[in-house]
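Title: Prediction job returns without error message
Component: structure pipeline
Severity: low
Priority: P3
Assignee: unassigned

Description:
Job completed but the reporter wants confirmation the result is attached to the right record. Sequence as submitted:
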Amino acid sequence: MIDDSIFLKALRKEKLPVPPIWYMRQAGRYMPEYRAVRKNFKNFLDMCKNPEVCCELALQPIDAFKLDAAILFSDILTIPDAFGLEVQFIENEGPVFQNPIEKVDDIDNLMPFDPESLSYVYEAVTNIKNTLPSNIPLIGFCGSPWTLAAYSIEGRSSKDFKKTIGFIKENPDKAHLLLSKLTDACFLYLRKQVQAGADVIQIFDSWANILDAEDLNNYSFQYIKSLIDALKNDSITSNIPIILFARDPKCSTESLLDTSADCLSLYWSMNNFNIRLAENKIALQGNLDPKILLESENAIKKETHKLLEKFKDFPGYIFNLGHGLTPDICPNKVKYLTELVRDY
């Protein structure tokens, strides 16, 4: 029955009467059911390391909104944590690394990546897949090598990642070594997710926006392309569709198409993306501004209809937001939006 999934049909660039719909960060703090579970864990990553709880959380939005795809409940920083950088999530601060990369020797001395150290993620994938309705695909994911590197060097989230930018400018060769190590780890990690039951992969280049066009290709897109090429040339993952989400990238439509992703997830402000250039080459996903869900139903309807009209003739369109759902959004607005798309 999985072949009947309209989400997978859209990824195959089929034109559909109603676009499939799912939401980035669809399992999250905006849902009271999620908050009830989250309060039982002091550290967010501890929750991510509990496969049974991850299964419960991944299914909450599927049960609430009858969405067309589920996504693994986990975090992009599992890989740096497995490299021994010791990630902790601190209330009101977000992720903080206990052992960030401070000097070039730290890159040489990184412990080898063992994909088995993230077995809790693969167990969660299997649990979710076994519990989902048979026609609902499961999306596995990872952070892009660049995004993981930025966090690993900065040691925490940042608006401008000055420390990271300074480090790669001063140590380009070591930066590329780190990115190569992270690319290899992402490949092994995603391969294991597919073996565990993931039907689709999404790569989150969450910090694409801090690089200029040249550095974006040099430090991010070339490694994303290497990762996608490795997945496409592996017997386990060769037929798995790959979605790329790059946050507000300073690049051309052609640069994004050159990554070889099967689908591009558009950031909410990417209104200059050339849809016609992408037609029949790639599926597209996005890109409603999540902030509209804080407005009235009339405002939501107006912006949603505008977006649906824009993509109505595009073969392989998936409705989604241009970033993740935020904690201040009311679940009733998500339900309203979902019904709007299906009734359009």
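Comment from assignee: result matches the submitted record. Strands lie at 70-71, 87-90, 94-97, 138-143, 200-205, 242-246, 263-265, 283-288, 317-321.
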